[in-house]
Amino acid sequence: MMSIINTSDVEITTFFLVGMPGLEYAHIWISIPICSMYIFAILGNCTILLVIKTEPSLHEPMYYFLSMLAMSDMGLSFSSLPTMWRIFLFNAPEISANACFAQEFFIHGFAAVESSVLLIMSFDRFLAIHSPLRYSSILTPIRVVKIGIVISLKSVLLVLPFPFTLRSLKYCNKSQLSHSYCLHQDVMKLACSDNRIDVIYGFFGVLWVMVDFMLIAVSYFLILKTVLGIASRKEQLKALNTCVSHICAVIIFYLPIINLSIVHRFVRHVSPLFNVLMANVLLLVPPMMNPIVYCVKTRQIRVRVVAKLCQKQM
Q: Which of 49, 86, 263, 287 has its C-alpha lying 20 to 30 A from 280's C-alpha?
């Protein structure tokens, strides 16, 4: 399967991705649900973006941030789509080193954007519940745009060193990756030169994402504290109900990341199939589920989506 003989004197320039270990014979059938999930994710997020753009009543900070979430979800989907389709549809697992480094840059970059957007959305929910009268004056459209720019720049700068540090390493003994797409922590393990810088910076990147998660937890602690101070139980439930969609999005996004990080760094022996499944869940499930969650749990979105569908049928 390997195009280059594994010797310490020959540098590897091609990596090999994996599909479902032990289920290679069924890849063509596995491609059906995988392709369906990509289609649902892309159509769902496009629908969210279209509805928010065409409905003036949804031109509010909460829905602008939801648009950012939809765009980051689409970015994640398009970043992993080429290699997933090549593996499962055409049984072509090879990928050049430069293409691999580029893919991991985009995957980690859009994941960092999504993490930051989820953090800002938790702050948005806290502000809406804690200071509803000042909400619109604090989160003006100009400030929302500036927040979006800062999130994008922060995410790019965070992952920008990844492809360069990986390219500086020498790969001479192994070329088999353990996922269906390229990840920084997966590629750096194949290096036969000193990769301590990548290990340290990779840990810093994960730590940065975990800081986002902890700040989200702090935001919800403050939200809960504010809600408990509301006298009316009905108003308490109404306030908490505005957070349900976001809580679901946070769980869907962070749970696979935490599990995958723990497996990569602390678990020595794990089933290759489990590893691949968890990694695929990380990139396939959040982009597909977020539009569904927000359409089901957010009345304003649901009503507009149904209205658009009815107009098309007429």
A: 49
